[in-house]
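Field log, afternoon session.

UNIT: design team B
ACTIVITY: writing a sequence onto a fixed backbone
BACKBONE:
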């Protein structure tokens, strides 16, 4: 089950491998949570700013990867958007699984951000809606 909520924020913070994303305090932030029997298996954090959506972070528990949870979270987000121009995200160039997923979902590479992730290039991707 996917739920748009922030009531699982403590569990999300506990399982996340990137604690700094919780320091943002963005008024535009939204969270989708993938639940199974009340347990958080993954989540997607995104901002909606006017007619644009920016995916900030997608996380799936290590033991739950390759179960299409990331796909389901992204698909839920894309299908819920009305009157939006595009969705953007950044991904590490050394993360072929994520890049493949995003391309499968219709995202296109639009730019490379050199050394964006502590010396690792980032790829800016966009999906026009």
């Amino acid at each position: 089950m996917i739920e748009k909520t922030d009531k699982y924020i403590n569990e999300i913070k506990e399982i996340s491998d990137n604690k700094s994303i919780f320091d943002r305090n963005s008024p535009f932030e939204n969270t989708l949570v993938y639940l199974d029997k009340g347990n958080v298996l993954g989540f997607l954090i995104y901002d909606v700013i006017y007619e644009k959506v920016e995916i900030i972070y997608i996380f799936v528990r290590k033991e739950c990867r390759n179960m299409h949870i990331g796909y389901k979270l992204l698909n839920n987000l894309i299908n819920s958007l009305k009157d939006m121009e595009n969705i953007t995200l950044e991904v590490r160039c050394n993360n072929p699984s994520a890049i493949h997923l995003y391309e499968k979902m219709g995202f296109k590479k639009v730019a490379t951000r050199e050394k964006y992730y502590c010396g690792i290039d980032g790829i800016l991707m966009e999906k026009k809606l």
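LOG NOTE: The chain has a mean pLDDT of 92.
NEXT ACTIVITY: expression trials, pending approval
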